[in-house]
């Protein structure tokens, strides 16, 4: 692959999909602008102007948050401070009841698992934030594995590490071609493509539109995660 080539995933029969790696915020969990609100709080905590940074935050939705802050603030200590402020602000929003599942998300997960497929939930948030979201939704025992970047060696999307960690830990698939990666951002799509997933599906309930998802390698674009069981039928 040349540096300027467009990545593509390896297509497979949807009947062969054994492992489904689902993003959380924007895909199975309603975002409602909470990421931007928490970022705004973090930027102001560091005395920065959030309006000058918000375009980058939107473009990199899906990437691990500490990576975003490293790009924006440079110095590691400031990036870590911004990340802590972000996580604290997001936790307050979760505690205030601002987090809810997207329509059909839980039912989709239960249906996929009922058909014998393994579902893993992934996020670009830190583990504490991911656990708070799962607790708020009552999803602690919904799937056998949840992953954040730290669980996969520290590299978040667009690296394939979380997808490959799900593959290795669950042993649900015989090869990466039996993996479906589903998310709402370009970085979700890139992580699936780089992992060699057989199906890379974008959903239109989150950060990026259909053109952006396809440009990043989506092989399917769905209105929402609720359409996934039908796409895999």
UniProtKB/TrEMBL annotation:
Signal peptide: none annotated. It comes from the Bacteria. This is Phosphonatase-like hydrolase. It comes from Streptomyces hyaluromycini.
């Amino acid at each position: 692959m040349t540096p300027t080539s467009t990545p593509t995933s390896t297509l497979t029969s949807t009947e062969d999909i054994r492992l489904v790696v689902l993003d959380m915020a924007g895909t199975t969990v309603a975002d409602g602008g909470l990421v931007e609100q928490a970022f705004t709080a973090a930027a102001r905590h560091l005395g920065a102007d959030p309006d000058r940074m918000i375009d980058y935050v939107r473009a990199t939705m899906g990437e691990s948050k500490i990576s975003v802050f490293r790009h924006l603030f440079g110095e590691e200590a400031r990036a870590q401070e911004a990340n802590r402020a972000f996580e604290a602000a997001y936790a307050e929003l979760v505690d205030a009841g601002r987090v809810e599942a997207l329509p059909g998300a839980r039912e989709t997960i239960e249906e996929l698992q009922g058909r014998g497929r393994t579902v893993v939930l992934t996020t670009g948030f830190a583990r504490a934030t991911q656990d708070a979201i799962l607790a708020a939704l009552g999803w602690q025992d919904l799937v056998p594995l949840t992953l954040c970047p730290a669980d996969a060696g520290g590299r978040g999307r667009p690296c394939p590490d979380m997808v490959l960690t799900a593959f290795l830990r669950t042993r649900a698939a015989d090869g990466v071609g039996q993996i479906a990666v589903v998310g709402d951002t370009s970085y979700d799509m890139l992580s699936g493509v780089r992992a060699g997933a057989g199906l890379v599906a974008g959903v239109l309930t989150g950060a990026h539109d259909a053109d952006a998802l396809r440009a990043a390698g989506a092989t399917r674009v769905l209105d929402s995660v609720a359409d996934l069981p039908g796409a895999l039928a």
